[in-house]
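ugh ok so i messed up the first submission bc i forgot one of the chains. this is the corrected input, ALL of the components this time, i swear. 664 residues overall. if the numbers dont match what u have on ur side tell me asap before i send this to the collaborators (the ones from the other lab, u know who)
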Amino acid sequence: MKEFTIKELLVPLSEYATVPIGATVYDAILALEKTQEDFDHAKYRHRAVLVLDDKGQVVGKLSQLDVLDALEPETDESQEAGLLSRFGFSANLIWAVQREKRPDGSLSEAHLREAACLEVENFMKRPAEGEFVDQEAPLKQAIHQLIVGHHFSLLVTHEKRIVGILRLTDVFAAVFHMMKHTPPGNDEERP
Amino acid sequence: MKELFKLFDRIIQRVNINLRELAFDATPYVNELIRLEHMLKFYAFYGITPNHPLSFEFQHSSLAGSYFLGKCRTTNSILYKSDIRGDELKKRGDMLRYQDFEIQMTKDEMIDIEDSILIKTLVHNYSHDPETIEKFFIHSTVSTQYANIHGSPTDGCFVGPFATVDLTTQSDCVIGAYSYIQAGEISHLNIAPGTIWVRGGDAFNFLYRYPAEALRRYIHFEAGQAPQGVFMDFVESRKHEFQRIYDVVHIEPSVPVPPTASLDRYAVVRPKTRINENVLVAQRAYLENSWMGKGANAQENCYIINSRLEGFNVTAHGAKIIEADLGQNVFVGFNSFLQGKPDARLSIGPDSIVMPHTIIDIDQPLAIPAGRLVWGLVTDAASFETHSMSLAEFSKLERPTSKGDMCFEGKGAAFVQAFRDRIQHILEANGAFYDGEQNKGHAQKNQNISFNTIQPYPKGRLEGLYPTILIKP
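and heres the new structure output, hopefully the right one now
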């Protein structure tokens, strides 16, 4: 059975969507689209955009959820939703209450335009300690970090520089592949 | 008085450390609430009865005007006109049921107050936390005027005026003024004033929030100021009525009291009040020109004025009933404020439930039909419709529901049944169903209480503090 390494699975930084700090959410979406076109051989689509400082260092990551977050500005309604959630109410009730207070809950053009103009640093997540993994580390370590931190990807480092992204989807595909070549059953009965 | 000031500062510091995550500073709130010079003016007192385990331990504490019953311990604490009522604590041999566990009590439960300031606070009931069955603790906490800590072990909290924490273990929380919390277990929450939250595990979840501006008229509490509003004006205007009963050693009841009823000698009863069988009137209750039907009760800090309670009525701690007529089995929850007027009386039909912390303040007569659930702020017929539902209708709720500022999720039937069970338990505990032989409760057991007073150091470094006192059988 072939065991995959992190180096084999990572997406190089050069193939990943990036934007400089100060870019807008709209810039990030365009960068994501362009990367997808340039590297459409990938089986799975890119799902995040990296934010770089003026030295080209990764300072943040903008996920799909972060982009959607830009559509929910800090209004009375979003605060209300957060509050009800803290009191243990379900999403069903929260949505019912919001619909009652604002029957027209559709996304307007103005709403989308406003969110597109917001700067990425307002929504990006700065990578936490457990989101970095060395490219020489065993794949098992990366799996452990993905599970413990509930991450969708890890930043792969080499000599203290970020060299790529290890995506959950690629790790899953590799594990799936390995599993297929080791079907369950009694090893002794196998030829 | 140097030691007392030092103790005060030390307690506030401990509370602030606990609440640092919420960025809450108790100092400016508490500084205006209590004048340590007044801690000398009022004696503390404790009750002795043949019906409750006896154990009092007071160490490095100031206890002005506070009352103790049952098993209580205070350490490094300041209590001002608070009631520590340990007559519902669990006793050795009792069996506590929690989920699938049956837990046997190996010793009597104790109320344990440490590093805390309690101002005009009621502590009652017993710890419902299965992890601390033998200790109902209140540690590193500040609790303010007319708050109720009811069956709620508390650590590192600030409880605002007229707030109630009921059957809930709380740690590192700020409970805003006039909030009522019954949620099992909470931590690190800053609850806004006027939040009424009743959560029964996965079975139901009820939330009502008073509009801030509307609540402000009744109670508002800001840093650097004492609590203000209608509630404070109401109790302050009757404060002098209590002065007389604390100044007199022997006092005879001012109205006839049937042998099966109990009128605490520290309650105020004004003329033309009638007390019927199995009635319980607790200390610091105030009755005036009112009819207390069989099995009705008035708990601590209750005011019942120009009203008629037909019988088996629970008037929970701090509730006020003015110019009202209540049918049988009407429950009025903690700190509710029901204010009719002489020409605009309030009537509440039998078997209704007025939820804890409900305000009914009317200028036109209002008749609430039988079997109604009422919550929130009711000022007229229109707001009554928004803030009530028949109990039968509420019992049918199964989908997430909102009505005005109220949200409900879960099974309405479970919610209503939980209230009914609780009301039944309170009536039983209070002795409302005593038949001359069976079903004795507080109304019968609390009849013969001997009161003893204790006093602090009158001068010197320890002025205002009480010497270490141990009182055992």
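quick check: Chain B has a mean pLDDT of 95. that seems consistent at least. Chain B has two domains: 2-236+448-471, 239-445.
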